[in-house]
Amino acid sequence: MPEPVTHPTRKGLPMPTEAEILDALRGVVDPELHRDLVDLGTARVSVRGSTVDIEVGLVTDEYPEEAERELHDAVVAAVRAVPGVEELKLAFADIGEDAAAELMQRLHPNGLPFAEENSRARVLLISSGKGGVGKSSVTVNVAVALAQRGKRVAIVDADVYGFSIPAMLGIDTPPVVVGDRVVLPPRKHGVRLASIGFFVPEDQPVIWRGPMLHKALEQFLTDFYWGDPDYLVVDMPPGTGDISLSLAQLLPGAEAYVVTTPQPAAQRVAQRAGTMFQHQNIRIPVRGVIENMSWFTGDDGVRYPLFGAGGGELLATRLDVPLVGRVPLVPALREGGDIGMPITVSEPESEAAAAFAETAAWIEAHPPTKRRNPALKVV
Ligand SMILES: Nc1ncnc2c1ncn2[C@@H]1O[C@H](COP(=O)(O)OP(=O)(O)OP(=O)(O)O)[C@@H](O)[C@H]1O
Ligand SMILES: [Mg+2]
Predict the structure, then answer these.
(1) How many CB atoms lie within 10 A of CB 195?
(2) Of the candidates 100, 30, 34, which has an alpha carbon nearest to the alpha carbon of residue 72?
(3) What residue's CA is closest to ligand 1, atom 23?
(4) Of 86, 147, 209, 278, which has the fewest Cβ atoms less than 10 A away?
(5) What gap in Å lies between CA 88 and CA 51, rounded to an integer?
(6) Quick check: is 175 in a domain?
(7) For residue 284, what is the domain's CATH number?
(8) Percent of the chain having pLDDT more than 70?
(9) What is the pTM assigned to this prediction?
(10) pLDDT tens digit string along 198-257?
């Protein structure tokens, strides 16, 4: 075979080849689609001498600006690493509705991804029989803490009537629909989100009955493009109603965490969620208890148990699971929730953020034991 002819560039390096550039683009992942550009087939490359032309296709003309910037920087970094490239002409273009719909059909066929036996996502249901104990705050901050540990994390806001996660995460951009079905969930602080709040004005009540709720939750799970996350954290509504039953059906491999405040009376109400998950028609394992508003640390450094003490321990004992987190009461946590800046982002060194980080670490270190395969026949 003849030796490949290489033309030295002005710097004496060999000219880059198209194959080398494509190889480099295999390391560039589309932040919205979570696949590399070569796998997606969305990069067009041509090389003339030491000049490289790349056109990257985007699945929608509403492709988020932040993601486009990330993609731009990743392509530049990848091409920079190829010897001999002196000039890069980089352009982005919408691939058009038909091509996008076709691509999304390949990436995201119909079906319920999280219900499959081989789904790698851990589904964490953050719940409580009691309202106002901090389920949503725990959901957001544990999700961010998991993302800070390098995990790919998504939140489903299943509190359809009382959604609060868009405001807590500070997401005010609606999700983008690609083709006629697939929805790209918006991202903030490293976390993706689906919420009914994207589709109804904040001051309007959601007046739906059970079947509509079930449908909405099912669509969050099937029509949103989650891209194989490590964790799907679900903010549950208070109590033990319809939605919990629907989720148990849609997410059979889920694990539940029960949130309570420390006063013994609160934990008795919180416990109802635990009892519900253990019910024979649901059978979702409760993995742990998270106690919130456990104490307030005064300026004197003393921890004051404003809401009593011991509720978390007691509930954990009753449900026969570990207490996996104790979060102090801190005004900054509420303020952060109000302005869309979780305390794990704004004050990562704080006592409360450390508590969420510890809980996230516990969760990561304790994957559930593999579900048994009911179809297995032993002969
Ligand atoms: N550890 C904490 N320190 C200070 N404020 C907190 C703490 N945890 C929660 N809060 C505040 O208490 C209020 C209720 O919290 P959150 O909305 O998270 O509870 P919830 O259980 O999801 O409520 P709901 O049952 O209404 O969905 C919010 O204003 C929140 O900011
Ligand atoms: Mg809530």
Answers:
(1) 25
(2) 30
(3) 132
(4) 209
(5) 6
(6) yes
(7) 3.40.50.300
(8) 94
(9) 0.91
(10) 888 777 777 777 777 888 889 999 999 998 899 999 999 888 778 888 888 889 889 999
Q: What is the DSSP string of 23-34?
A: HHHTT-B-TTT-
Closest atom of ligand 1 to 292 CA is 1
Orientation of helix 135-148 relative to helix 351-365, angle to 10° = 70
Q: Which domain holds residue 78?
A: 18-107
Total domains in the fold of the chain: 2
| More confident site: 116 or 166 | 166
The answer on 127 and 23 residing in a single domain is no
**What single-letter amino acid sits at 205?**
P
Q: How many CA atoms lie within 13 A of 22 on its CB side?
A: 13
CA–CA distance, 240 with 266 (Å, rounded to integer): 15
Ligand 1 pocket test, candidate residues 136, 259, 269, 291, most atoms within 8 A of CB: 136
Predicted confidence at residue 117, as pLDDT, reads: 75
The answer to whether 318 and 116 have CB atoms below 8 angstroms apart is: no
Task: Give dist(CA 129, CA 9) in Å, integer.
Answer: 69
